[in-house]
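Extended Data, record DNA-formamidopyrimidine glycosylase
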Amino acid sequence: MPELPEVEALAGFLRERAVGRTVTQVGVGDIAALKTFRPPPDALVGGTVVDASRHGKWLDLLVATPTGEPLHLVWHLSRAGWVRWSDQLATTPVRPGRSPLALRVRLDDGSGFDLTEQGTRKRLAVHVVDDPQLVPQIASLGVEPLSAQFTRERFGELVTGRNQQIKGLLRDQGTIAGIGNAYSDEILHAARTSPFALTGKLGAAQVDVLYASIRDVLDQAVAAASGKPAAQLKDAKRQGMRVHGRTGQPCPGWDGTPCGDTVHEVAFADSSLQYCPTCQTGGKPLADRRMSRLLR
């Protein structure tokens, strides 16, 4: 799933290529992906793209329509969705079916993009609204972790205001917007913190380290993704990971000095997390819930 750094890079990519261009066609390939019906997607046709931005993991294309009313095409790529840009978009009509194509936006110079989603579990969500805050998931987003509002004090309040596993807090979009499974693994590794550590038991020094790690990991990931074409962002994300998605590989160490351990995994029903026992849990492996069930 694309997270804050990749979505930020996609917004910049679209801003560079689409702003100033006129929307000439919007085709819906998967009606289930479209979550709003008024105004319809073709209300964007004839409008000029004014901006591309991000709300957490949501992308937002702002279009000034011919009537003068600004509309927002906002979408969440979920786990298997992506933005596929083409300088010369296919001219074949978009027809609903079993294709990965969910939505196509064509611009006046022939360029444009497809929103696609692989797999059978379709979760990509597209909205056409006059205000992004009309999308409940956007309206309920927590603080942006790279914004001026995300201070050490604000983070401390979020941590001490509840007692839950720190991994869950970092991934909670209503608390902190934009961090998902991958970057929460990376942040916790950088902070030398167990993903199962309870927020209520974290001391002030550990909260300091976590706060700094959030900013550092995301800043570095945004910088690494910035300017890259959409087609290269997935590979760039994988290459930048120290522990996420690297089960069984040598741990590079939280500070770049290999610790001598390997990356371990805890698997759940539909996801998994990765961590280093030496760097994060005092050398003690965490129980793998999947293996625990098999051994009963």
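Summary. Residues 152-295 form a domain with the Helicase, Ruva Protein; domain 3 fold (CATH 1.10.8.50).
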